[in-house]
Amino acid sequence: MNRASLHFLLAALVAAALPLFMRSGTLASEVLIFAMAAAACNLLLGYTGLLSFGQGIFFGLGSYAVGLTLLHTSLPLSLALALSTLAGAVAATGVGWLSIRRQGVYFVMLTLAFSQFFYFLAYTFKDVTGGDNGLLNIPRPAIGPFTLGNSWSYYTFVAVLFLFVFAALQRVASSTFGRTLLAVRDNEERARAIGFPVRLFKITAFAVSGAVTGLAGALHALLIGVAPLSSIEYHMSESILIMTIIGGTGNLFASVLGAGFYVIVSDLLSSIWPRWLLLLGGLLVVVALFMQKGLWGLLERLVEALRSGRKSPVEAPVRPESEGRGI
Amino acid sequence: MIYLFQLVNGIGLGMLYFLLAVGLSIIFGLLHFVNFAHGAFYLLGAYLVYDMTERGVNFWAGLLLAPIIVAGLAALTETVLLRRIYHLPHTFHILVTVGLALVVQELVIILWGPVGGNVSPPDALGGVFILGDFIYPQYRLFVIGLTLVLAIGLWWLLEGTRLGAVVRAGSESTDMVSLLGIDIVRVNTAVFALGAGLAGLAGALAAPIRGVEPFMGIEALGIAFVVVVIGGMGSYTGALIAGLLVGIVQSVMATLWPEGARLMIYLGMGLVILTMPRGLLGRA
Known about the structure:
The complex is a heterodimer.
Chain A: H1 3-21, H2 25-48, H3 55-72, H4 77-99, H5 104-124, H6 126-129, H7 151-174, H8 176-186, H9 188-194, H10 198-224, H11 234-247, H12 252-272, H13 277-290, H14 294-308
Chain B: H1 2-31, H2 38-54, H3 59-80, H4 90-112, E1 128-131, E2 134-137, H5 138-160, H6 162-172, H7 174-179, H8 184-210, H9 216-231, H10 236-256, H11 261-275
Antiparallel strand pairs in B: 1-2
Helix pairs in contact in B: 1-5, 1-6, 1-8, 1-9, 1-10, 2-3, 2-4, 2-8, 2-9, 3-8, 5-6, 9-10, 9-11, 10-11
């Protein structure tokens, strides 16, 4: 079995196992929704080397798009979700196109500034977005013959979409396009010298990432029935980025781990101690400094230790070229 | 008259943005370190003044102490943690400082609560300044005056002193400066503390104007980024021009379209990037 199918199998296992040990379908859905967003962030960070603080823009726009469509038109759910995906892709193309005009640190600062821009945009046009209150009372209509009112039936719908999106992202990552992104990440100058249209590739990576993140945002708005202003805030971008980094940027499944960890721990801790983000900030520092392969790296070492049994521990094998690097 | 009022407001605001951004800028110039915790130092400066005035400490003492405490904390962070990661790629600087900023923000909420508060300007500057038709709060005039003096002082520090020469030389090549027998490690700490202290001072000065709340740090970080993207990292003049420009645009727009004033800053940045990808001063 090759790595990609192994990772897909693991993702399918997670989707199947979540209902077994989660008490609420809402929380389980949230895990898979953020897993999509984190995997999309990973496509930029792990595969293209673009650290984007703009993921919240696409997430928030997806939320607003699905909400506005369902509230103001009679279009079916499938079209509303398609519009959200499109909204994410279009915004990401624009933000990507402008941000990659600068490289390195400036690029990162631009994505953060754009994230502030869209936040103020949503905040300013209260008539459309509901401002601070968010867009309320978003319905969750049936899709074809399936009603989604029950939280576990909605979970099933999210899980199917999640697996579809995960497989699609894997296809993108393993395609010639995806492998060229790795070349751009590892040495942009060389990729350009060889003749790859580096800018176009980066913008396309942004568009794919934005589309998936927009869909995730839409599913989140349907889940909670609201498109809140917090979905488009800096904090959303930060959370998605943190999930991605905690999971590890080596492969797409690592993002599922990161999102699962973030969502479940935040659910456990936020009821006990609302200021748990303090610990999260500390954890981010630790991961960045000492655990650059994230939770996935930890898992890899665990498996390695189990395999080698009593034999002296072996260094983890060097990553193959097609794999993303740690951060 | 309303435009003159807003213009003066914009200059005050712009000078605060300058203080904020120039700190970020000189830290990047010398250390090539990307500090996403810069907004957190601004936040701390504001809250320290808030805390001290709430406890009945004289505002002036607070204004003096807050940036010094912030600079001290920054020097400590630099010595314990940050200097160990200078050699790593920028991504690591960003992640570590984003983590630190989150820690500071949550600490602020733990210590002072999530709501925020107001800081009243000192009694001596509580009134208004009247010149014919022109009526203006004295505190805001004081901010403009003080920041102007500081800007000149900072320029002299960077251009006219030995430390400044080391900083400018270090921006070109830290190795060369070390070879000349200068303890660059100490200079790094000093510059980091100076940059953070300036952010703390900007926060402290801004507190009586805009109040304090836990998320002002991230807002300040966004604005500082806009300023350095427009003006160029590592450039004193760039930070000054871009800071004033952003402040004035925001203030004037506040009259024309109050809700959209902050939106315009970012829209303006988009335009600059579109037309002049290298920023106003055309540096890399």
